Amino acid sequence: MTENLKIPECLIGFLGPAGSYAEEAASSIYGELIPFNSIMEVMEAVNLENVDIGVVPIENSIEGPVGVTLDLLAHDYDLKIMGEIILPISHNLLLNKGSSIEDIETVYSHAQALSQCRKFIENMNAQPVATPSTSGAAELVKGKKNAAAIGTQRAADLYDLKIAANDIQDYKNNVTRFVVIGNEDQEPTGHDKTSIVFSLVEDRPGGLYNALSAFAKCNVNLTKIESRPSKKKLGNYIFFIDFQGHKADKEVKNILNNIKNKTSYIKILGSYPTEGDD
Amino acid sequence: MTENLKIPECLIGFLGPAGSYAEEAASSIYGELIPFNSIMEVMEAVNLENVDIGVVPIENSIEGPVGVTLDLLAHDYDLKIMGEIILPISHNLLLNKGSSIEDIETVYSHAQALSQCRKFIENMNAQPVATPSTSGAAELVKGKKNAAAIGTQRAADLYDLKIAANDIQDYKNNVTRFVVIGNEDQEPTGHDKTSIVFSLVEDRPGGLYNALSAFAKCNVNLTKIESRPSKKKLGNYIFFIDFQGHKADKEVKNILNNIKNKTSYIKILGSYPTEGDD
Questions:
Q1: Which site among A209, A228, A230, A278 would you substitute to test the B interface, given the most B Cβ atoms closer than 10 Å to its Cβ?
Q2: pLDDT cut 90: percent of chain A above it
Q3: Pairing between strand A162-166 and A192-200?
Q4: What is the ipTM of this complex?
Q5: Residue B109 shares a structural domain with residue B141
Q6: CB distance A59–B234 less than 8 Å?
Q7: Active site residue A176
Q8: What's the number of domains chain B is made of?
Q9: CB A118, CB A111: distance < 8 Å
């Protein structure tokens, strides 16, 4: 999960509460884990140096980007992405020990987890209800015979629930990518990627073709592209791109110089070791 | 809101319940309005011809795409986009008549509305809690002195709540684009756009540059580009593009032929009259 990431023992803020997928991701780093109630609170704690680093979700292979993480990194904080953690997501149906699946009328979980198990919930003939977190859902259903939660093994343990079904997500290959956020740049390791965000000079996405030419000319692979609304008007976007290489590499410096002339705004979110096979 | 869209009187399914923003959008079309509980149920009703058309949200200028609408159009249904409706979103804080803002501990609304009013809720020192719809939130807070909902004027009327504050969204220029979904193609009107979804031949977004060249060479403006996870693996995307022109236009036919050679999968979601200024 974090083969290449080297971070010394530290204080780690994560999107809590205890039992969340973010805790599972953060526990692969050595240090004291401190839960926060929201992605913004994690970033604020890193920004104020109340913690050394933060671990927050940035994209899921099924549901797509975590908009609030992207927006906060682009608009609100000048923090660095120092690493990534790729966590396979296996959703479990959590019930009180006296209940069975036939009793369930309502399924509680985070909106993304509910969405990822949509077909399973439909087949149960149950009503999905969104909660702020998966582990919050487990806490909520404790003692309610007709309610179930979707969450982690750890959440089941914490709230003394049983796992009535596992791997209940509709699609296989469900992984979430978390980023490690801090205040310092990472040195090149030889297997790095760089994350940037930019907006185009032109008002319309037509200019994206020109911006992408900077990468195509150097044969540099993009590992991610996301468009997000600029929050100015409909049809006005900012683009998040990840690509292979470290910002200290000569070729990457050339690309970044080239792309600067084609964008009205550009921010380097960080260069950091690549995990997984992308 | 629907200057260019011409649809004869018909049965219109919309993402309910009564009092939702989708109802406000759908009410600009002449016909009988029928609420459904989810975007999928609206599409299923159109598919089964239980209603003539459906009205569902597809993107918001602040929050970005509505993933479930894009995914259902790409993967699950062969329906046509027949038109678009652009609705300015003005969020209101709805309270019971005996309550004041100082009493409020919890604010209920749809996750997107909560997210769009994040700073306002933080300043209230209240806890946001997600509900399946904005009008569902209004129903839920009825009679609860310490709870507020975020929703429409119509929802306030329906549940006899008062509007304690209006235009409470964090960003101005908050508009939602709805699409009208049906089973028939629309004839060219001279001011049309076309929506397509495609995936690339190559495994990586590098091929996006080549696909966009089909538009750049013809100087055709893209009015939207979104990447969505393909649900196969992390870093594997499908792309939604809107551009000016009707699929019956000669130039658009050429672009579509050109792009077919650069994509492993392409689906034309529809050609329909453009609303607004994009």
A1: A209
A2: 57
A3: unpaired
A4: 0.74
A5: yes
A6: yes
A7: yes
A8: 3
A9: no
